[in-house]
Amino acid sequence: MPKTKKSQKPQHWYTSDRPIQTKRHDLLMRTEFAANLADDIRTWSGDDSLVIAIYGSWGSGKSSLKNLICESLEKSGKNVIPTLEFNPWQLSGTGNIPSAFFRDLQITLRGSGPKQDIEKRSKVLKAYSTTLDLTGTAFSLTGKVLPFVAVPGGPIVEAIGKGIKSAGSAIKKGSEALNAKSEAEQKSSQELKCEVAKMLERMPQPILVIIDDIDRLTTDEILQVFQLVKANADFPHLIYLLLFERDIVTNALGRISGDHGVEFLEKIIQVAYHIPHAPIQAVQKVLFHGLDSHIDEPAIAKRWDKHRWSELFADGVASYFQNLRHVYRFLASFSFHVRHHKKERSFEVNPVDLIGLETLRVFEPAVYERLSSAKSFLTRSSGMPFSVPISQAVMDEAISQIAAHASTGKEATVKSILKLLFPPITSEFENNRSIGHHLHTWLRELRVCHGDLFDKYFTLSIPNYDISQAELDHLLELAADVSGFVKACEALKQRGLLKTAFDRLEAYKEHIPLNSMPSLISALCNLSDGLPKRVPGLLEQDIGMYFSRLVYFGLRRQLNKKERFEVLKNALENSSGLALAIDLVSNEERVNDRVSRGHEFLIGEADLEELKLICTKKLRKACQTTLFRSSPRLKVYLWRWRSWTSDKEVREWVALHSSTTQGAIWLLTKLLNESHSYGREHTIGYSIQLAEVEQFADVKTLNSFIIDVDESCLCEDERIAVREFRKALKRRAEGKPDDIAQQELDDADINE
Asked: CA angle, corner 161, sides to 157 and 164, nearest 5?
């Protein structure tokens, strides 16, 4: 797309669809054509009238061309041709088109020709109009052809229909109208018309009558206009310039000519031109200038994909921009949506996708209206992480049904646009696994084909359960600011959007600047201890898992393991958090399953011990706080502490805090296991394994503290923990395994 100079003030693309007024605004290079036609009009010296037509479709610029012709005539010199611009569309539906025409013609004649004729011309014209009204009932429009009217002295139309009759009705009001009626009753219409013709002959120059927007009228009104022209076409020194879409007018004239509208029109029009074809390059230049004025901003430009835009434009969008009216209609709408989606220094959607959707919305509304309800097809997503695959045959049929609502001849174009906007509908993505490989890319690019972003394009709002792209961009900018990042996350946490934010950040895990990683790791460590307790779901990700992945994939781009180690070491030493630090170091331990599957470790094994020492210091410091004792991750901390130091150190700390009944109950709640089952209902199971308890405390000692505890006096968590501990003691006494799952397997074998 060509670049344009950025203006100080943003251009407003709302338009009332007004034609241009001067050649300074001529973008379609029609000034020369207009000047040549103006010269022909100005130099015409015939004694008869002349009817010129300019044919062009709606939106092709007929009115703009008319204004260029008028401008050229006005600048031609002293002898400027008097011009009557008559627009019947402004009177459509009023029934006053004929009377308004005669009134305007009368006004124009007052300012032209010999002064001594002005009053007489006005009087005679009124009388002529009135006589048409008096005799107009003799002719009916339907199914009849007007006889061709020759020059003065030839056959004269005695009546030109019901439409002309209304002209006299308007003129009859007032004393002047009564006088006109009196004179009309004394002379025939032929006599009055001859008088008008003689006075027009004495005019020093012709009068130009411009009639525009004829094709916007009703059929009956189109007939009225052409009856006016035909009835007066034999007046000398009148030049008619008619502008309309040819097919619309010939169809209307066909009603009174036995479907011979073309031939009938040719009898009226003496010289006809087609509006010069608008060079498609000129139209596209205006479009590109308008788009550039919006896209040439950092927040939007950074997501501008030239390759995708080239494909979208060439294979679909270009065909909808054939004239400037198309361009201005689109830019007015696009301008609104750009302003709506621009938040601070961010842009909420993909600009290329927005152009594609706006093209459909403006030019294919019936197609656009069906897109929002087709989200599951267009994104191949039913809202579940693993949706049921949609076969390509079903997909193709669904897209065909949508494209069937396209305008005539545009079905293939619409399909092409949809495939470029929504790659999941193509056969390449029939397998859900293929979509999974692209989801993060689509999310970063803010593509409409991503299920999480689709609704933004259609609802034009961000629901309170979602995060805006502006907030996400701000969070990414704060990655190098420990304090700022933590504060922003705490604010999101208060709104219940922390998980949503990190779900989106997952797509950026390999795109965060390396120089921001030390600060980001420290910030994540500080946040990790305050994460809400995870509510398990069948496929739900723990927020802590997002933290670990951001660190792992972010650091993995640093190829030097020693550099990675230094970043981790400094981040852990300079942060107060414990949970993420423990997870990061634990993930670097060379356990069998990681080694066997070829897991890429971030640091060398020789450096791992130093990180363990840092975490051990953190554990020893944290264990002196009440937050440590109340942490839902206490069991993990105890396991790591025991693994990285000694069994004795951990058991001494546990014994110190579990040497009372309340302390024993507290320890059991922290060692309570949960299991979740997802069938028709989500059920939760609880258990305590004595072998696990024995890693940290003496089972008999704990039992001595709780043996006489009344469970009814405990809170729910404490009651469950005590009950499961007693069950575990009973199983051991009966010689059964501590592991309930193993016990269930043994019971099944016995039953078989």
From this structure: 90
Neighbour tally for 586: CB within 10 Å: 17
Question: What integer best gives the mean pLDDT of the chain?
Answer: 84
Q: Assign residue 386 a region: left if phi > 0, alpha if psi is -120 to 50, beta otherwise? A: beta
Alpha helices in 342-481 (DSSP H): 351-363, 365-368, 375-378, 392-403, 411-421, 432-436, 439-444, 454-459, 469-477
Q: Is the dihedral of CA 182, 186, 191, 195 positive or negative?
A: negative
The H or E element containing residue 674 is strand 673-678
Architecture of the domain spanning 34-274: 3-Layer(aba) Sandwich (3.40)
How distant, in Å, are the alpha carbons of 42, 50, 74, 202, 239 from that of 46?
Answer: 11, 8, 21, 13, 10
Task: Say how far apart CA 625 and CA 57 lie, in whole Å.
Answer: 81
Averaged pLDDT, 53-62: 86
pLDDT for residue 589: 95
| Arithmetic mean of pLDDT, 526-552 | 80
Q: Where are the domains of the chain?
A: 34-274, 280-459, 464-643, 646-752
CA dist 146 and 139 (Å) reads 9
356-371 per-position pLDDT tens digit: 999 999 999 999 999 9
Residue-wise DSSP of 306-333: HHHHHHHHHHTGGGG-SSHHHHHHHHHH
CB 300 within 8 A of CB 351: yes
Backbone dihedral angles phi then psi of residue 273, each to the nearest 5 degrees: -130, 150
Q: Which amino acid is at 59?
A: G
**Helix-, strand-, coil-residue percentages of the chain, each rounded to 5:** 60, 5, 35
- Per-residue DSSP letters for 359-379? HHHHH-HHHHTTTGGGHHHHT
Separation between Cα atoms, residue 342 and residue 453, nearest integer Å? 15
Indicate the residue type of 602: L
Beta carbons within 10 angstroms of residue 99's beta carbon: 23
Q: How far is CA 407 from CA 44, 216, 356, 410, in A?
A: 44, 21, 16, 6
**525-555 burial by CB neighbour count: b if 16+ within 10 A, else e?**
bbbbbebeeeeeeeeeeebbebbbebbbebb
Give residues with Cβ within 8 angstroms of 382, minimum separation 6: 376, 388
Spatial separation of the C-alpha atoms in residues 332 and 294, rounded to whole Å: 12
CA–CA gap between residue 628 and residue 666 (Å, rounded): 13
Whole-angstrom Cα distance, residue 267 to residue 150?
Answer: 11
* Torsion sign across C-alpha atoms 581, 583, 589, 595: negative
> Which residues lie across from 208 on neighbouring strands?
83, 239
* Strand partners of residue 687: 673
Instruction: Name which of 60, 61, 83 is nearest 72 in CA terms.
Output: 83
Which phi and psi angles does 262 have, rounded to 5°?
A: -65, -50
- Give the containing element (helix H, strand E) for 687: strand 682-687
Q: How far apart are CA 322 and CA 330, in angstroms?
A: 12
Residue 673 is encoded by which pair of tokens?
């296991």
User: CB-hemisphere CA count at 13 Å for 446?
Assistant: 25
* Closest by CA position to 197, among listed 156, 157, 237: 237
Residues 6+ apart with CB under 8 A from 644: 612, 615, 616, 619
Please spell the DSSP secondary structure of 578-604, one letter per residue: -HHHHHHHHTTS--HHHHHTT---SS-
Query: What is the C-alpha separation between 377 and 424, in angstroms, rounded?
Result: 8
Sign of the dihedral defined by the CA atoms of residues 675, 679, 683, 687, in that order: negative
Tens of pLDDT, residue by residue over 617-668, are 999 999 999 999 999 999 999 999 999 999 999 999 999 999 999 999 999 9
**Cα gap 449→504, rounded to integer Å:** 15
3-state secondary structure 463-514: CCCCCCHHHHHHHHHHHHCHHHHHHHHHHHHHCCCHHHHHHHHHHHCCCCCH
